Amino acid sequence: MWKSMATIEADNANGSRRDGPRQETSPTSDLAIVRRLEAAGFRAWPAASIQYDGSWQVRLTAGHPSKRLNSVNPLDPSDRRDIAQRVERAAHRFESYDRPLVFRQSPLAPPELDAYLDEAGWDRFDETIVMMAPIAALDIDTGMDHLPVRDVGRYVDASIRVHGREPALKAGLTEVLSSIRPPTGLFVIEDPESGPVATALCIHDNDLAGLYELATRADRRRMGHGRDAVSAGLRWARHRGALHGWLQVESANEAAVQLYLGLGFREVYRYVYRRPPIGSEAA
């Protein structure tokens, strides 16, 4: 049965790594930390529609194509009942939004669901590393100070340009940013002659500082602008009382991974997206 819920609460269950290629937390990682970061991530990047099928959070957003905003997110490793029927229900829901069916598999996903998707031939793509560190231990006190911009429209225009996105996404991105409830710092690193060269979004959520939308313009990479944006966001959050910084980065983005490792971030867990094979009924 579908039901709406407003929040996700962490508990104290522990988890371990599964064998095989599935993305999992390390044996010493605590699923309570994973749950806390997952919940903070959902608050920081709010979907327009959120429904639950058991503990599977179904997130859909007509105005923006982001996978995090349009995916099924299983949130309890023990919730393994009626998998085939629930996948089918999710497929119908995504079809009604004209969105491709995508599952986001974190360490909170039940192993039986992964096995079911494996048997059905679902692809894995965009493996992502979640990293975290105490802000006091991070190397963020070098470089210029940058204050967050107050104009959401200015930030959105800069983000679209820096990411090389379609201008048609402006309305959807503006709606998402306007829906974020925790305090938000919008950072734009600009060149006086060529305009915005890097952007970052920092969300201050209790003692956490989450970094999102990190990007450097293609022609200005490897020049320190990305580091400046990250440092500016974390200094802003530290001033507001945040104690821990965290972020998500695709494992294939080796330059970004090395940047964050160099700053002092360390991996906490990974997640991966899954989609039906082309031509299947669920695709």
TrEMBL record:
The protein's name in its UniProt record: GNAT family N-acetyltransferase
Organism placement in taxonomy: Bacteria, Pseudomonadati, Pseudomonadota, Alphaproteobacteria, Hyphomicrobiales
A Pfam entry, by short name: Rv0428c_C
Region spans: Disordered: 1-30
Positions of the N-acetyltransferase domain: 147-283
InterPro entries for this protein: GNAT_dom, Rv0428c-like_C
